[in-house]
Amino acid sequence: MKWIKKYERWLYIGGMVLTAFIFFWINKDSEKEMISPPIENETAESVEAEAKPLTVFVDVKGAVVHEGVYEVDESSRIKDVIQLAGGFTEEADRTKVNLAAKVQDEMMVYVPKKGEETPTVMSEQTTAAGNEKKVNINTATAEELQTLSGIGPAKADAIIAYREENGPFQKIEDLLNVSGIGEKSLEKIKEQIIVK
C-alpha cells in the first residue's frame, strides 16, 4: 500500500493521459464516419450525373407511319428516330434519307415521297436578326451546300465526307480541314453558314 501512496500522483497523471488518449481516438473515428458518407454520396451523384446521357428533340415529318416530335439520346442517328416514328411508309423515298446522320436538338427530319423534291433534313435556320437564311453545315444536303458561293458538287461531297468521318463541325473554321476549302473559300461563305 505504501508504494500506491508513493506513486499515487503518477498513477493519477497516467490515468488522465490514458483517458484523454481513448477519448481522442473515439472522437477521431466518429468524425471520419460523419465526414465519409456525404463525400461518397456526392461522388456517386456527380458520377451518375456525368454518366446520364443528354437528350434532344427531333421533329419527324413526311412519309413515316407516325409524324411527331421525338425525344432521343444525343448520340442517336436518323435511323433511330425513323424507327421511333414507326418506320417508312410504302411511298417513302428512302434514297433521300441519310440514316447514318447524327441527330441534333431542334432538328426537323422530312421524309419525302417517291418523286418528291424536298430535302430530308431541313437544315436552313432563320436567324433572329431579319429573315436571312443560313445553311447549317452539319445537316445540309449536297444540294443545299451547293447554294453557297463557290461550293460545287466536289466541295459539297468533300464537306459531307469529312462530317461523316469526323462527326459534326464544332465551329465554322473547321471547314478549313476539308480538302479543297481554303481561307478564300471560307471567307466567301462565312456569312451564309451556321454550325448547330
Automatic annotation (TrEMBL):
Keyword annotations from UniProtKB, A to Z: Membrane, Transmembrane, Transmembrane helix
Any GO CC annotation of this UniProt entry: type II protein secretion system complex
Pfam families for this protein: HHH_3 (PF12836), SLBB (PF10531)
Spans traversing the lipid bilayer: 9-26
GO molecular function: DNA binding
Domain (Helix-hairpin-helix DNA-binding motif class) ranges: 143-162, 173-192
GO annotation (BP), single: protein secretion by the type II secretion system
Recorded superkingdom: Bacteria
InterPro entries per the UniProt record, alphabetical: Competence_ComE, Competence_ComEA_HhH, Endo/Exo/Phosphatase_dom_1, Hlx-hairpin-Hlx_DNA-bd_motif, RuvA_2-like, Soluble_ligand-bd
PANTHER family tied to this protein: ENDONUCLEASE/EXONUCLEASE/PHOSPHATASE FAMILY DOMAIN-CONTAINING PROTEIN 1, ENDONUCLEASE_EXONUCLEASE_PHOSPHATASE FAMILY DOMAIN-CONTAINING PROTEIN 1
The protein, known as: Competence protein ComEA
Organism whose genome encodes this protein: Thermolongibacillus altinsuensis
